[in-house]
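Let's study my pick:
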Amino acid sequence: MIDAIAWKFQTGAQRVQLPEKYGNWRGVYNRLRIWSADGTWERVFTALLAQADADEELNWVVSVDSTIVRAHQHAAGARKKGPQPASRMTTPSADPAAG
């Protein structure tokens, strides 16, 4: 069951594309949903982290790569605060029919 759930998250595939060796996709989906709702996953991960930390197998180093930090898509066209510049006046062109 855990291998089936891990496969789903590793591949990003839809649950109906689950290989037959993992069994019925509905059973896997229902188990994932129930374990998420009742806190089973949180308890499992907390226990695994506590055990790894006690065995000194965790290295709490965080690295942030600035090349992946992006502004929101709407940030590029946001209005600037403060007075708005006056628009340039345009001069009318010569009347083509008058020529």
